[in-house]
Design goal:
The chain has 265 residues and is α/β, with parallel strands linked by helices. The protein has helices at residues 10-21, 37-45, 54-60, 70-78, 98-104, 137-148, 161-169, 171-188, 193-214, 218-225, 231-241, 244-264; strands at 3-6, 30-33, 49-50, 63-66, 88-91, 110-115, 125-130, 151-156. The protein has an eight-stranded mixed beta sheet with strand order 3-2-1-4-5-6-7-8, with helices on both faces.
Length: 265
Amino acid sequence: MKIGFLGAGAMGGAILSGAIKTGVVKAEDVYVSDFSDAIKAKYKEMGCNIAGTNEELGNAVDIVVACVKPQYAAAALKELGSSLEGKAMISIMAGLTTESIREMTAGNFRLLRLMPNTPALVGMGAFALDSGTDLTAEEKDFAQKLFESIGIVEWMPEELIDTACGLSGAGPAYIYLVIEALADGGVVKGLPRATAQRLAAQTVMGAAKMVLETGQHPGFLKDQVCSPGGNTIVGIKTLEEHGVRGAFIDTVANATDRARELGKK
């Protein structure tokens, strides 16, 4: 199966590099189209094929992974011409629905829309994939393996992709705020800034790994840390008094609503 990357910048490059590194694809089976000479040189050196035009890319491959920024999507997809006729596209372009992508692209092709997030850049991504896709079983299996090479995959109806955008798509920014605040608390009480930041980041990463690897409910794991009359339960009480739980719930809900608004523009 020949794979084309329409754009191989930060996110597209992370997916491509992860797939090659884990053996999901072979570099010689990959074609790259990008406006950046530096990006093209990088992937040519890795053994990938460089397409001269987007239409050339589409003609050479079985599946195109569309990774261009939304504001450049219309022009980039138009340049594919009818090269995707009878083929497949996987889109990570934020905010673009399957309907809008089909309107921008010529020909009859199969399509999978998904929502990535930036931790994919360090192999820890979270990907929400449209379960209503018309990809073939073989193509769906490829997509599963492609994105599992740099994170976790969850399939869901397209109408829930915007919710994933509000949760996991935007979520890293929320967690950066949490890490910064935890570190600030440590600095208030005397920890050096660098030490506080490393402890805060490792604590967040470790707690997340506990949830994923144990399969236990976060509330259960929280209770395991809270000794009667101890410092942790006092900290939890403080968070509850400040409405942290409600703030996060409202944050995801409001970000989801905004994602839906942007998708309609």
